[in-house]
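Hey L., structure's done. Input below.
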Amino acid sequence: MNKFFYFILSLALPSMLVAQAPAWFLQLSSNVELRTLKLSNKAEREEHGLGGANIALYQGDKLVKTVKSTGSGDFTIDVPANGDFVLVVSYGDCNAKKFSVNTMGVPATIGTDNFRPTFGIGGFLMAKPLPGINYGILAQPLVKVKWIADRKKFDHDEGYTDQILDGLGKVAEAENALIEKFVDANKQGDEALKKNDCPLAKTCYERALALIPGEIYPKDQLAKVGLCLKGKDDEAKKLAEAAAAKAAAEKAAADKLAAEKAAKEKAEKDKLAADKLAKEKAAADKVAADKAAADKAAADKLAADKAAKDKEAADKLAKEKAAADKAAADKAAADKAAADKLAADKAAADKAAADKAASDKLAADKAAKDKEAADKLTKDKAAADKAASDKLAADKAAKDKEAADKLAKEKAAGEKVSADKAAADKAAADKSAKEKAAADKTAADKANADKLAAEKAAKEKEASDKAAKANADKEKAAKDKEEADRVAREKAAAEKAEADRIAKEKAGNAAKEKPVEIQPAETKTTPTPEPATTTTKEPSTTEKDGSLIRKRTGESDEKPGKQKKGSSKHTIYKKL
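Output:
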């Protein structure tokens, strides 16, 4: 956290110096404010006057005096002369602040009874420490004030103050980094909670509590996460029951569909089997009819061949018998020509034998050819039977494959219908959840914006009222002081005039009563010192090392060793 200290130094010296033992003190005045943090998914800081803060002045280990801040946070404490002191401001469990004051080294010509220096500390900001931050630098005095001889006034050690500022800047960076992590963890938890991601929200809020324990916001959000988780469990249970009911209904529908499909497939299968049997029977009948026709044709051919051969043999026998009868008649008729005829008959017999051998050979050749034709017919029939059987088997396999493919397609179509229905149900549920989340986010954003606007308006009004009151109080104080100064001057003048009048009357009366003139003793009067006034000049502002330094435009016109109150050269605004 950035700590801001504002230092205003003003010295008031009386117009007259009296050589006496030092009896002066340095008057310190300041204001204490309490800074509180309100941490949620953003960081809000609030500051207000702190009453009851303890202000303790130490000299070594010895406690010199203590005071308490008023309800508005103001306090004043007198620091004795010629000592080295430490001012400690503390309150509850806030980080304590130290302030070093050394009142030694003031020359005797300046440090008289009428020497009344003051040092105004613009304000102390008290804040509670954050976990894990190294506040070791606060063990040192934040500012060292001492008498600056060449300036002839009390002022702070600027080099030391700059070193402290650097260290406090690092502390502030560490605090801001921790607060940013805490706020980011709560933001992530809020986003997760809006999306109903209860486990992630729980993790984020627990991480925030681990960074800064005891904060209210993540605790309250964890209570909401508990309700969210319970709702998730109830929803999951309802979804599981609905899913079970849906699965049962889908199973019943699938079982019904499967039964209907099985019945349909069985009917189709039975019809295919019957058709197949009918086709196979028709094919077998055709093969049998073809075989019977072929057998009949072969038998008819064999019978015709046999009849032809029998006729040829009968004709031959008839011819031979006629020839024998003719030869016997001829032999009986003509003995002379018997020898000639015998030769001719022998030739004819030889020829007949040759003809018979030729006829037998032809019959044997024909029988071989007929047998070969019959064997070929048998082989062709067997090949035709095998081809027909193979074709029937191939047709059966093709029909079986077609039926199986059709069954697989119908099954895949049923499964696709179920999958499409499930996907449609899920898409509808997701769309409903997204629409609800969007509506919840819009409502939350509007409520948050309204709250921020109201808070901003309240803060602006409060700041405006506070500034107006401060201006009014400042103007009233100035008027009251001016009136008091005027009354004091008039009263002093009236009292002096009255005293002079009384003295003159007494002197006149004494002169009348005593004839001898007595010269009155010389009367010394001590002039009333003028009330110290504070002259405030408008500062100009410049940048130096990241801190604001306000420089007074006016210089004191007093002689060395004398400085009017409020006429210091510098008023310093530092970040501490």
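Confidence is low (pLDDT under 50) at residues 1-20, 515-575. The longest helix spans residues 338-513.

-- N.
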